[in-house]
Write a structure and sequence with these properties.
The chain has about 160 residues and is α/β, with parallel strands linked by helices. Helices cover about 45% and strands about 15% of the residues. The chain is built from five helices and five strands, in the order H-E-H-E-H-E-H-E-E-H. A five-stranded mixed sheet has the order 1-3-2-4-5. Helix 3 links the parallel strand 2 and strand 3. The protein is globular and about 35 Å long. About 20% of the residues have low confidence.
Length: about 160
């Protein structure tokens, strides 16, 4: 019985240490990501903060009960974190899709570690989470890393209605 308690305590400590190291890694990467793209390349995903989100996507403070998309073309919002493995896996696909669909859709990236209010407002509990926003109708939230072909299929079906 005593060895079970020790084993359980040891397992909990290892788990907390792993979480702490991931959080520490996220803090280390914050400086690097703050200097990344903010619209330098028109064909790359755009890193967006709360102020930009309220202006370009949806002002949930002004109209919390009614979805009013503010963009001029369909969009994808990628809720991600720098330390997230699956987020890193889909990032190259999103970069490629931003180039493929340049001028047709916007792809925005929201760092959930920096923009906790946005993540909370959209109920983000797991990442990556992709919010597909068509010009008309209700946005759709899809979670998990998907292959590029699936992401492209969703763009065609949900955003471009092909």
């Amino acid at each position: 019985m005593n060895s079970r308690k020790i084993f359980t305590l040891l397992a909990l400590m290892i788990g907390f240490m792993a979480l702490a190291s991931c959080k520490g890694q996220a803090k280390t990467n914050e400086t690097a990501s703050s200097t990344e793209t903010t619209g330098k390349d028109a064909t790359a995903p755009i890193h967006i903060n709360k102020a930009g989100f309220l202006k370009k996507v949806y002002n949930f403070e002004a109209s919390p009960n009614e979805w009013k998309y503010l963009g001029n073309k369909p969009a994808i919002i990628d809720f991600y974190a720098d330390w997230c493995g699956p987020c890193k896996m889909i990032a190259p696909s999103l970069d490629q899709l931003a180039k493929e669909y340049a001028g047709q859709i916007d792809i925005y990236k929201v760092d959930v570690d920096k923009e906790t209010e946005l993540a909370t407002a959209f109920g983000i509990q797991g990442i990556p989470a992709l919010l597909y926003i068509p010009m008309e109708g209700t946005p759709q939230m899809l979670q998990g890393a998907q292959p590029k072909e699936v992401l492209k299929e969703k763009i065609e079906m949900i955003l471009l209605k092909k």
